[in-house]
């Protein structure tokens, strides 16, 4: 049953004390009512796209648009701006440094606001198409030192130090689609969908919310050159996951950050919002993580399980240190997610197990049988910085104290 309320009477009904109770018990999530269950999408997404395409198809006379992308002072937000080059760049060396106003991105004061953009990785642009490029950048301060949220600089030093181990990462990025009202996309207004159960890897209009966005993002990643591995619907409705990797060393952070940028841009076109909040909905709903799969050359070869077990033992000894870098707020975000419920371990305890999704570290069943492969660190939050996560894992598993001190 769906209760449709004429617009002129909505305010009166919403003020009635029984309004929310009636909606919760008598609305069906699978059926949409224009006056009650309309998803909130942005106005810009409703602009005439045919008119836009007329301009997008115009020739560029050999010139190239380059969009510079960087991480802002929150450690989570992404910023971008575009400039023209006289010809298509062939490599990252062809992209000039640039600058921006750091006082508007939480990265500097107005009296000394210029920040440097240092190009580090180049991709094809799936929005304006070839020959245009997307360029991921590191941010340096006026004195050319890394900003506080530039974790790439120190991560790169570590990855160079452990290069001989050929460490591979694969990160599983969970996220939730929201309307512009910050309520989960597709959920009934002032109510909830059916309990978790049919949504994970689900199919059908009543189970999968926003698949168009997911498929467009996948295609955009492939076109750009992002090393995307796959995607699936997650346990909570409106929650999805994509996987990036395997990537070696610093490439993991580069590719995941660009994949996140592409997701936000695709969502912008559709008028919705993607959030990496680790626990977007309170109550009996799954949170969102960024499970990180790790493998060294030794782990991948015959008898590699012993190296996996050694790494897990080291990780257990530094559990608290890792929790502090597994979300942007020193573990405060993960407190809401790592409760020991909803397929998580407790934030206060370290655990490991074969095929156990309630542990800190999971050894896949196949790895346990073959005695080689990789392990999965399930603690990183969805909004983690992949540079900080991969650096911490590499340091703990592969370096001794003297080597750590050399890098610092």
UniProtKB/TrEMBL annotation:
Q: Which PROSITE patterns match?
A: GLNA_1, GLNA_ATP, GS_BETA_GRASP, GS_CATALYTIC
Localization in the cell: Cytoplasm
Domain GS catalytic stretches? 151-408
Q: Which residues form the GS beta-grasp domain?
A: 64-144
Q: Where is the signal peptide?
A: none
UniProt cross-references to Gene3D superfamilies, sorted A to Z: Glutamine synthetase, N-terminal domain, Glutamine synthetase/guanido kinase, catalytic domain
Instruction: Give its E.C. classification number.
Output: 6.3.1.2
Q: Which reaction is this enzyme known to catalyze?
A: L-glutamate + NH4(+) + ATP = L-glutamine + ADP + phosphate + H(+)
Q: What class of enzyme is it?
A: ligase
> Any keyword Mitochondrion?
no
UniProt keywords, alphabetically: ATP-binding, Cytoplasm, Ligase, Nucleotide-binding
Biological process GO terms, please?
glutamine biosynthetic process
Q: What single Pfam family name could you report for this chain, choosing any that match?
A: Gln-synt_C
Cellular component GO terms, alphabetical: cytoplasm
Presence of keyword Nucleotide-binding: yes
A GO molecular function annotation here is: ATP binding
Q: Which family does it belong to?
A: Belongs to the glutamine synthetase family.
Q: What is this protein called?
A: Glutamine synthetase
């Amino acid at each position: 049953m769906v209760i449709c309320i004429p617009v002129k009477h909505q305010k009166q009904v919403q003020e009635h004390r029984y309004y929310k109770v009636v909606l919760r018990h008598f609305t069906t999530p699978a059926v949409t009512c224009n006056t009650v269950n309309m998803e909130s999408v942005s106005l810009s997404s409703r602009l005439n796209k045919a008119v836009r395409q007329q301009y997008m198809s115009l020739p560029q006379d050999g010139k190239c648009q380059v969009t510079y992308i960087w991480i802002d002072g929150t450690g989570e937000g992404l910023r971008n701006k575009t400039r023209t080059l006289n010809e298509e760049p062939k490599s990252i060396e062809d992209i000039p440094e640039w600058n921006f106003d750091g006082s508007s991105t939480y990265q500097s004061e107005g009296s000394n606001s210029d920040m440097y953009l240092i190009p580090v990785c180049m991709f094809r642009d799936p929005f304006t198409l070839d020959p245009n490029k997307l360029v991921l950048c590191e941010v340096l301060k006026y004195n050319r030192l890394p900003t506080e949220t530039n974790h790439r600089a120190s991560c790169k030093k570590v990855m160079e130090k452990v290069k001989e181990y050929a460490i591979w990462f694969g990160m599983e990025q969970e996220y939730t689609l929201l309307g512009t009202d910050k309520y989960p996309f597709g959920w009934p207004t002032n109510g909830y969908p059916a309990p978790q159960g049919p949504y994970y890897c689900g199919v059908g209009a009543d189970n999968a919310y926003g698949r168009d966005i997911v498929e467009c993002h996948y295609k955009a990643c492939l076109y750009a050159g992002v090393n995307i591995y796959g995607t699936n619907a997650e346990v909570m409705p409106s929650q999805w996951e994509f996987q990036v990797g395997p990537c070696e060393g610093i490439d993991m952070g580069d590719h995941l950050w660009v994949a996140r940028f592409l997701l936000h841009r695709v969502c912008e076109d559709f008028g919705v919002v993607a959030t990496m909040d680790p626990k977007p909905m309170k109550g009996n709903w799954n949170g969102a993580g960024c499970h990180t799969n790790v493998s060294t050359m030794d782990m991948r070869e015959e008898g590699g399980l012993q190296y996996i077990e050694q790494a897990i033992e080291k990780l257990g000894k530094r559990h608290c240190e890792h929790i502090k870098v597994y979300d942007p707020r020193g573990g405060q975000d993960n407190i809401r997610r790592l409760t020991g419920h909803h397929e998580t371990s407790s934030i206060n305890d370290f655990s490991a197990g074969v095929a156990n999704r309630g542990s800190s570290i999971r050894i896949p069943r196949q790895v346990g049988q073959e005695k080689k492969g990789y392990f999965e660190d399930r603690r990183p939050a969805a909004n983690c910085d992949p540079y900080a996560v991969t650096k911490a894992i590499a340091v703990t598993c592969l370096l001794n104290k003297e080597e750590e001190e050399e890098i610092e």
